[in-house]
Records
---
Amino acid sequence: MKSTAYRVVRRTQTSSSLFPLFPNTLRYVYGKLVQYDGFERFEWKHSYSRVYEPQGKYSPEGIFMSFEHYNVEFRDRVKCISGIEGVPLSTQWGPQGYFYPIQIAQYGLSHYSKYLVDEKRTVSVLEDAESRDTARWTVLDPMDSQVDNVWDADAGSRVISFNSLDSSSGVNLPVGSKLFFLSLDLRFISNASITVVLEAKGKQPQLFFVHYVCSNTLISADGNEVFYGIGDQRSHWQTLSRDLSTDLHKGLALNRGRSKKSRPSLMRVVSLSLSGRGRVDNITVSSNSHLPQFHAAADWLVRHQDSRGGWPIHVERVLANGRLQLPPGWYSGMAQGQAMSLLVRAYSHTRNQGYLNAALRATALFDVASGNGGVLAKFADNYPWYEEYPTTPSCFVLNGFIYALIGLYDLQHTVTDDRGADASRLYASGMRSLKAMLPLFDTGSGSIYDLRHFTLGVAPNLARWDYHTTHINQLLLLATIDSDPLLSETASRWAGYMKGHRAPHN
Amino acid sequence: MKSTAYRVVRRTQTSSSLFPLFPNTLRYVYGKLVQYDGFERFEWKHSYSRVYEPQGKYSPEGIFMSFEHYNVEFRDRVKCISGIEGVPLSTQWGPQGYFYPIQIAQYGLSHYSKYLVDEKRTVSVLEDAESRDTARWTVLDPMDSQVDNVWDADAGSRVISFNSLDSSSGVNLPVGSKLFFLSLDLRFISNASITVVLEAKGKQPQLFFVHYVCSNTLISADGNEVFYGIGDQRSHWQTLSRDLSTDLHKGLALNRGRSKKSRPSLMRVVSLSLSGRGRVDNITVSSNSHLPQFHAAADWLVRHQDSRGGWPIHVERVLANGRLQLPPGWYSGMAQGQAMSLLVRAYSHTRNQGYLNAALRATALFDVASGNGGVLAKFADNYPWYEEYPTTPSCFVLNGFIYALIGLYDLQHTVTDDRGADASRLYASGMRSLKAMLPLFDTGSGSIYDLRHFTLGVAPNLARWDYHTTHINQLLLLATIDSDPLLSETASRWAGYMKGHRAPHN
């Protein structure tokens, strides 16, 4: 089978310039070098709390803010990457795990941004069936299992066919690679499964097993074995793309907790085995991959957009010690905006109108008041505000509002005809609110996360430093597309607060 | 002559309870013991930056906030107490000196509040002419000068008559007292003057001369001599009340600057001499006096209220590095409010309707927008705000607004009939604004002086600690008359900031 375009496009690209966007003002890089998965890695644990000076004008087709430094799936509050949907599940506000459109959009935007940055990528093709044999495969019990190299009319290429009556034996492909991102095309004919064997360092080398099985169970784990359901609808050719390291660690964390000590240091992929009955092709391992995750996120948004153009969030959200509540099914202006940013990029990258149409439909809720199930609040009955959390009374979260504005900008900048009129109007009126209200978030030594103190009459909810830096990064982005000095001056003053500068007193 | 009622009423009252209003939470008293004017004094230099927990419900007839601790005339920015008007002149924004209604109202309110507090008062009667002789007086040159004890029909009592052809000699009353507040009734027949001789401590005892002369010159000084013009309209009986220590020090400061070292340590009043032609009676010196200053301020407000009910301020005011300007002739919502608070107390104390009518007329400018010469601003086109400085754009000074609200409260609480309807309405809508907007002044570690950052898009203008404590004292006052927990909780949180408490971050 020919690989789909996006999987091959950057296969041979390498670059040593891992960090091209570091600003001159960034003097220290926080993080640490760690050894796992056979590589020495620099862990960007705090990378999203750094100020990144934009290198040029922001573009709706380019890197999203500084998201090339984000690692969404690494976060503890990501339960795992769904085997069926290919996107993360959040446990932030519900331990059961739920699809959170903001997290999914950020997952897609971070992988798109990483894709645009020249990251070194190494790919090893394990099997493309073009050799017309099965020389790489081993079969434990030929009475139970068999493997063949066949022509597949649907795929339009030669593929590997497997048939194993006993699910515990199966057919086996030795791997022996230090590359932990797996991709393969597959078509299951019966209830088949894929098992990847991984070896980790220890006093004695340890083996771990990651199983991808035909079920709708999200994830389970038992000892050294982790199971991901990849659904029971795999009878047509589809591509499965999995970050084996993430999949193993999320599985082990289920039972062992999330401490660093429970994280085995992976040495290599030992082998891959297939059981049941089906066909596979284009099996590769690579050091990383970003376009599959980007597309998985964009496709999820297209599939799950509802009739109001929104992505309802099916978990209760409680803020301000219970004084603000959103029952399950709420929409988020930030989710709508981040989805727009992702969908516009998916459209620009593929020219698939479906992505653009979804982005255009996503604006409708910006004209619906929070009290009526939309995301529109008004500050002092005057300034419209697109709410990350459309509570009653309103809470006016700053970073969520700016993400909504960036989404509207992306959309109105991409759609220059009449279809973009709503996005254009909403962006303009939102920017008017931002410019008027931004100073209200300034404490003279930091910034405030939201305006709940205004609506509830309580202490201001001060932004911790990583949200403060998010505010700065957002303002620096906006300052490249809007010349109002308020934006750049505020960003500069707020960056100064991180170095100990203070606003004057009278 | 009988003394006027208010000058005798507290003549014999003494009390050792100098500080009855100290809250339990006040652990330290800042200031220092100093020796001057023959007394050991505790200087309350920072007293108005202390938090004072109210001891009971605020009353429009009672102490004004914690103004019993204020010493308006002591401030460097007070040029002197006018000999004609009996009220302070400010040099805060204009070195020429000008009558600033806020300062005048605060002068009156502080003296009224001090009067209500049981301060020890010692009075020595130097001359009341009831002895029917002039035994206490000396005449240097009987050819030039004479002194008599006579019946005065206008005064309805015996008085001292003096006549001195040579203004350098005159008639003399030895004093020898350590009491530095002078009061006398006088009627000048020709161009007369009064000279007080004061002795100060030094390597060698030093003499100083304070002259009260028939002229319209405000103040002048030459060496050890200070001159106050008391006007040329003194042909009817009037009372002259002067704080000799303040008068001397303000005069010396004209030439010697304002440093502490230039302040002589007064030992005693040596003598009082009269020249020209006129009559005097009821000459006393006392340790302090407050009702004359209170009435001088209230009477000044009645005399100088204009046809719009306001007290125009005849000095340019420039704020925010020149970005906000008020040309001379502006009105201040704070001046209007503080005047109301003073006039209501003057009415309550005297039942003179003139005071109340002036207070009622003072509300009119609260309904006139800043742009039209009034004091009314609107925050976000929604919340009315009575501006201390009615600039365009608005600046929303918090403490000035609350003083305006307290004035409106005083008035609407005192006038319970229809005449108080405007004050009542203005107070209610102002309190709505205050409760809505108060959180916007909270930085999580202090308070903000105004909202210029909102209107100008600049850094917040943080309140220094003495304004922060003013905010707290104002909120504590309001909390005694309005049970909304926002007021008391904000005051409590803001007091916590002074002890290092901080609002939480997310």
Note: Confidence is low (pLDDT under 50) at residues 1-37, 39-47 of chain B.
---
Amino acid sequence: MEVLSSVNIPKRNEETHKGDYGKILLIGGNVNLGGAIMLAARACVFSGSGLITVATHPTNHAALHSRCPEAMVIDINDTKMLTKMIEHTDCILIGPGLGCDFKGNNAITFLLQNIQPHQTLIVDGDAITIFSKLKPDIPSCNVIFTPHPKEWERLSNIPVDEQTYERNREAVDQLGSTVILKKHGTEIYFKNSDYKLPIGTPAMATGGMGDTLAGMITSFIGQFDNFEEAVTSATYTHSYIGEELSSSMYVVPPSRLINEIPYVMKSLES
Amino acid sequence: MEVLSSVNIPKRNEETHKGDYGKILLIGGNVNLGGAIMLAARACVFSGSGLITVATHPTNHAALHSRCPEAMVIDINDTKMLTKMIEHTDCILIGPGLGCDFKGNNAITFLLQNIQPHQTLIVDGDAITIFSKLKPDIPSCNVIFTPHPKEWERLSNIPVDEQTYERNREAVDQLGSTVILKKHGTEIYFKNSDYKLPIGTPAMATGGMGDTLAGMITSFIGQFDNFEEAVTSATYTHSYIGEELSSSMYVVPPSRLINEIPYVMKSLES
Amino acid sequence: MEVLSSVNIPKRNEETHKGDYGKILLIGGNVNLGGAIMLAARACVFSGSGLITVATHPTNHAALHSRCPEAMVIDINDTKMLTKMIEHTDCILIGPGLGCDFKGNNAITFLLQNIQPHQTLIVDGDAITIFSKLKPDIPSCNVIFTPHPKEWERLSNIPVDEQTYERNREAVDQLGSTVILKKHGTEIYFKNSDYKLPIGTPAMATGGMGDTLAGMITSFIGQFDNFEEAVTSATYTHSYIGEELSSSMYVVPPSRLINEIPYVMKSLES
Amino acid sequence: MEVLSSVNIPKRNEETHKGDYGKILLIGGNVNLGGAIMLAARACVFSGSGLITVATHPTNHAALHSRCPEAMVIDINDTKMLTKMIEHTDCILIGPGLGCDFKGNNAITFLLQNIQPHQTLIVDGDAITIFSKLKPDIPSCNVIFTPHPKEWERLSNIPVDEQTYERNREAVDQLGSTVILKKHGTEIYFKNSDYKLPIGTPAMATGGMGDTLAGMITSFIGQFDNFEEAVTSATYTHSYIGEELSSSMYVVPPSRLINEIPYVMKSLES
């Protein structure tokens, strides 16, 4: 694996508008786990997405707007509205706080029926667990899975302590999707290349950190033309901020990491 | 067009009270797009408006108060209350997060029936789209439209790539209102003069930035005697803050731009 | 009138607990004006009150907790609970965002039936207007009114432009309560003395600033033994913070003024 | 009693994930007192807990997520969900904002029927008062009570002014649990040792400060192997931050103390 020792974030062109920076749809947040999708949404805003819609349970709408007025919201159960939003979107994230019950299943099934080949799908958290159980056909669009080792075990059938590079690489090839394996020394597997992060810190081992990364990846893909660079840049930037903050913080609350995104992206701008 | 290279913000007189700084009514925010009107409201507060009322869908009230306790709220569907508020207001903004469906139409129709000649009306976002479709008589009061190029196309029938100064100027003259055309190098068209902004940055190309500008314009008009100076000052200040922040931020989240308004207004005070 | 050129805030004794710093009840906030009581509540917390309960309309509870988790909430319409809270309270503020309709009337009437001689009552905002109309007997406890000039006109029948020291002093004597007349050069009238503030700034002329002051006064009275010093200290500290912030801010949003209270109180500690 | 003059917070191991830093359940927050459990939850997040679930009244869910998206929420009245959560938890805090009525009683009774010997239970605030009345059998797991002197009087039957070291020590031995007696010079009683804090400040005498401490203790126990060190570290860190902030703040709002936790934990890291 190549060690990912730096990234470059593309400079924005002067003559652009918000429509040039991605139409994003985030699907997740049930009655109990709403905070996850709020973190993902705010990570998108602070990463630079132009237009963000969040499909979540109505009990989450007030808190979402309170934390993140830049995003739009729809009811995750309003299939008519959801169909319309899926149609007009570039990048779709499903999973943060989705829940693993039948409602989560339904949301994924519904999405897979409506997603189009030119779109990108990011599958995170509970959605990975559901994918592992339902084993649906992977859609023909660009698909990224962002599992931690236990979720990767479910998806690949490789037990956590047998997750070597060779076995992971083989499983990814079989899956045919991009995989970001989140752990100490996060690994990114593309079709023809793979990278390992030399940065990261146990101060980031906290609830909501994965939802934040998922939001950043979705946002970067929506903004940047080069898919692989978008994925590596987002993952690197996330760990980079965490490591920077951990020099003065024992633990890095995800909401604080998000605050730093625009500053660190600027410092990584080429 | 004159290049708008600086503005002066009037110093407040000592012997004044909140009633001297504008009675503002903001109309917008449906079930899905509530964040837009929250951004506009907080931009008003941080720009110095004395009294701000927000007419929005009740699902937005908790989040609005959570972010912006300085504003009052009413139910956008409570026509009795809305009538009363319109009557007691100096400046009315309609549009942020209003939605383009029949409810949005109704809100505009209702407002146009009740607005009075001495008031100022700012038409933003979805309200511009509705105006373009309904083609109502422009009310006899001071009216400002704040379109981005696509919205201006709808309103003026000039395709985006044919929006030259000459054609815009002609269309504005025909419309008889003030037009702020938001883009790289924002243009401001008054009846007898027009200005071009030499500042601005693609870091401001993000959802909610227009709602924030609309709130600032409304607030400045409510505070300052000179209408044209109020409009140019607000527009300039908005871009100026964005440009300043973009030296350290890759993208400028609207909620962060708002935080800076009082400081930058002070620095521009004459 | 004596010019109030400085104040001293008493140092806290080591062997004390939250019960020593006042049991406060704040009554206000209807469906439209909830933000006012939220500002008052947070001003209490940041001024050092030990125990704060807010009686407000249930639609305000989520936003109140979101901004100010340190306060407790009750439903303003739950008279059983309200009776119990009034009984166990030292200081009661009524008015911010109360509304001037029959519900506001009822809240005041109910409070006046239950208030006890050893308590202190602060009457602010809409509650002053209702007092002016209902003309109830002033309760035998310590009572403070915090009108701006128009509210003082309603309460005293002195037109705004005839509010001279002599006429104000006479009206206060007749009223038998403490009056804080909020304006450029705020005036404080006690039974046997009166003060004029040499500080203050038009940057404070903004919605919610009076609610913030009302919260501070209530909190200071709950904490400090000397009633007159508590009132003058709170009023002075409020204007002092506003003036300090106005050196860098064109307008001082009340929520920002509140953030500074603990720091400025420390600097004024004797 | 030993004077607790310093603590060391263990460095995190590189190869760890959020599951290594404690599964926490917080139970509290009725319709009136929801802010207390929100403060405890945010204190947990900022102290480094990996997974936090809050069981509270549904009216508190929106504000909780608004302040603390890192936590999960469940309805405190959903016994099926609650049973499941208790089963999968390491550390349980009950009490902040629970209320002393029959619902609070029920929550405690239910918890005591379901708690397991390997878990740790922290009993705070209203839960202490209910324990004092119900006098249930103390469960066989590790139990900590965090009373202030009045609550300790209720639990131990020692009047506040007779709470000497000898009598407290005897009562703790009889109780068979750990007791943290919160006061000027907080005392910590373990089975075979006891400590007195030389730090603390009356600037911390404010509502919500105890809820914050309870959250920190719960979080530290969930993270650190050594039980006694976890308890002393949390208590010391809480007072240490309060004392630091009090050099510039007259009163320390609990929400501000929480912001500092990660920084101070880093500075105390060994």
Note: The interface with chain C takes residues 31-36, 38-39, 59-60, 62-63, 66-67, 148-149, 183-184, 202-203, 205-209, 246, 248-256 of chain D (CB under 8 Å).
